[in-house]
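ok so for the tutorial part 2 we go from a plain amino acid sequence to predicted structure tokens. step 1 is just haveing the sequence, like this:
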Amino acid sequence: MLSLFQEFVKSYLQRPRERKHSAYYEKAHEESRTNIEKIEIKFNQGENVTNEILAKLLPYSDTPSNRENGYWISIAPAFSSDVR
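step 2 — the prediction. this is what the tokens look like for a chain of 84 residues:
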């Protein structure tokens, strides 16, 4: 099993497209942690956070409209436009 993983790392992760994909994860994790922290603060202050949850925690396609609306852009999107 370990040899298969090593082969994966040597071949797959060294390609430019896959390297970009892999690098995205660190950025995405940082963004999502920040989004969760901001939402948690608002929630603890008694604010309605429904819109923030829908916009900042769900994975959206990278489109001009989604970027303009401040949606969380994901390399593996589930939504192409507002989930509502």
